[in-house]
């Protein structure tokens, strides 16, 4: 049993012993299925606070020869599988966190430092096989395999930290990628490697148009495949926790849901655990991952980037091409590169089917709003000023002023928000009500209601509920504002909102494409 070679199970034991532990050992059924196959090279990238280290610790505890983990896993899901004992603690495991090796003094020798520490432990494990002149980690594993037939499982946590933090250091980048290639790619690694698992924030770096390690199966925030249930907490898991800890599930959902992975609604685990244990609904994001990292990105002068961020903060989604990002920190060349990186960081979510990015929940909406305010965007100031006037007119039931405000935004910001004929009014509306960020949750688009879908529903945050009514907004094209109001009533849109608010304003808006005029009607519904 060593620090990096055949570690014990103490790290995963701490996770299981925690007051809240959600069983994700079902993932071991997948790794057991692919072990010793071409699919045994796995890179799983996800944002901070999404359980990367716990997953790595779980794999080490299950496979490592350095411990006996039968009792640890006895009450967990994997223990019920047919091959549970077949792979349990049967492998030489190398498990290390790249971040742990980094110090200010040794950064230029980081790759050699990693190899030297691990090879020294392998020499203690196999003193009769490895000579003193063996220094390379790939060589050491190959020699051990040749002499004993033993195959390795290699688990690297924070594998991409050098790609992110040493982005400008070409020598370190080349040395590190070179080590990974020698360890995992080619004929020899297929002989000594039973399973490789890399976990980090970024997918594997691209060299020109190809992955530096193209034999890895990648599971990311852009496409998680069958790993989706094991990245974050699922809806059912959060519902169970909310019931156990007496928290309002709908409120938890508004604050922390929103990541869409292979049709799973995925929650940030650390945020959910924090709200269950503390009972405070707030942003826990900046406690572990400061938005300072994204502030420089938001100010990059790429065409359409700022307006896209404003649209998403307002509650809309934007189309994004995620294929151009080079998975590093130096190759940003377009709006889409920045948005893709923000998806990997967890500041944006991604709908794989629609190929659109959006702000996932209230927690991230607050963090991204803070980052934008730090940059003092002129665009943001202009939108905010007009939006505050529009919201004030709405709350005062001044339908004429609302119509004029929507028309102004439609006319002046048309080129900025980049809409088409089908969704232009929706885009204008989300931008128009940008100022609701402070008082309302992210607007619900097409909220399922009694007999249909309301176009927009703005639900006030609990602390503002006594002063701010909910807003149900219905949009029409080439019809009448009265028709929109009538639809809200006839299809019982009110029923789905009554439990979350006090008074409700019904807002009907129509746009006449021929005259390019907007009409608005507003009615107040007083909750009994």
UniProtKB/TrEMBL annotation:
Residues 18-206 form the AAA-ATPase-like domain. Coiled coil: none annotated. This is Predicted AAA-ATPase. InterPro entries: AAA-ATPase-like_dom, P-loop_NTPase, PDDEXK_9. Transmembrane segments: none annotated. It comes from Blautia wexlerae.
């Amino acid at each position: 049993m060593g620090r990096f070679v055949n570690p014990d199970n103490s790290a995963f034991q701490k996770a299981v012993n925690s007051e809240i532990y959600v069983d994700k050992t079902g993932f071991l059924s997948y790794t057991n299925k692919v072990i010793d196959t071409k699919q045994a090279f796995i890179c799983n990238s996800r944002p901070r606070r999404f359980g990367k280290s716990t997953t790595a610790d779980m794999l080490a505890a299950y496979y490592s020869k350095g411990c006996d983990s039968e009792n640890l896993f006895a009450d967990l899901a994997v223990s019920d599988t047919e091959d549970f004992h077949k792979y349990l603690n049967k492998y030489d495991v190398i498990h290390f966190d790249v971040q742990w090796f980094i110090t200010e003094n040794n950064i230029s020798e980081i790759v050699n430092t990693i190899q030297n520490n691990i090879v020294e432990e392998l020499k203690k494990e196999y003193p009769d096989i490895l000579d003193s002149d063996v220094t390379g980690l790939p060589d050491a594993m190959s020699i051990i395999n040749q002499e004993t037939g033993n195959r390795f499982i290699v688990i690297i946590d924070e594998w991409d930290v050098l790609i992110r933090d040493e982005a400008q250091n070409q020598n370190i980048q080349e040395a590190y990628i070179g080590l990974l290639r020698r360890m995992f790619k080619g004929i020899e690694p297929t002989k000594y490697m039973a399973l490789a698992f890399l976990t980090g924030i970024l997918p594997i770096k691209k060299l020109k148009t190809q992955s530096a390690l193209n034999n890895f199966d990648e599971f990311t925030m852009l496409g998680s495949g069958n790993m989706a249930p094991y990245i974050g907490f699922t809806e059912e898991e959060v519902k169970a926790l909310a019931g156990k800890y007496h928290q309002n599930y709908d409120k938890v959902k508004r604050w922390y849901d929103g990541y869409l992975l292979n049709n799973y609604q995925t929650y940030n685990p650390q945020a959910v655990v924090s709200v269950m244990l503390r009972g405070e609904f707030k942003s826990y994001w900046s406690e572990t991952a400061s938005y300072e990292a994204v502030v420089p990105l938001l100010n990059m002068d790429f065409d359409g980037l700022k307006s896209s961020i404003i649209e998403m903060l307002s509650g809309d989604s934007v189309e994004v091409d995620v294929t151009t990002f080079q998975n590093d920190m130096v190759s940003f060349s377009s709006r889409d590169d920045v948005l893709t990186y923000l998806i990997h960081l967890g500041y944006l979510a991604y709908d794989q089917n629609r190929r659109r990015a959006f702000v996932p929940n209230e927690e991230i909406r607050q963090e991204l709003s803070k980052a934008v305010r730090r940059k003092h965007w002129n665009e943001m100031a202009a939108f905010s000023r007009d939006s505050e006037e529009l919201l004030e007119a709405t709350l005062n039931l001044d339908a004429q002023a609302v119509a004029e405000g929507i028309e102004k935004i439609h006319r002046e910001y048309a080129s900025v928000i980049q809409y088409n004929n089908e969704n232009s009014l929706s885009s204008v509306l989300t931008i128009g009500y940008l100022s609701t960020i402070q008082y309302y949750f992210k607007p619900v688009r097409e909220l399922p209601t009694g007999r249909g879908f309301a176009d927009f529903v703005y639900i006030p945050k609990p602390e503002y509920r006594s002063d701010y009514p909910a807003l149900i907004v219905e949009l029409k094209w080439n019809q009448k504002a009265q028709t929109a109001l009538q639809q809200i009533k006839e299809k019982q849109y009110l029923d789905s909102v009554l439990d979350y608010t006090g008074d409700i304003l019904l807002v009907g808006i129509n746009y006449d494409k021929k005259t390019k005029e907007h009409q608005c009607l507003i009615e107040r519904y007083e909750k009994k």
